[in-house]
Specification:
elongated; 0% strand; single chain; 5 helices
Length: 122
Amino acid sequence: MNLLTGLIARILFAVPMAIFGLLHFMNAEGMAGMAPFGGVIIVYLTGICLIAAAVSILMNKKAALATLLLGVFFILTATTVHLRSLMGGDEMAMGQILKDVALAGGAWFMSGIFKKEEEGSK
């Protein structure tokens, strides 16, 4: 990957993750009801994880692992939070499911690229 496009891709992917993480802190009480368990604590924990993943991606330190785990996070969110909402009659949840699945795919794609870059630098 070209150095400039790689940097732009990292920024465009990581900054929204950091913002999602911050939103978890700013709206923890409102999001707690959507958590499948743990309430506010799991909202704060996932917020920390999103911010940590963003930092990892931006610094390009353990980015392959961060994006791999981020993909897992998005699949879990799609199935445990948004699918539950869809099954409960919230038709708008389908958009959230599709967004999370797409983000998981993007995260896993990036993980593969980061892994190749890590292997190439050894």
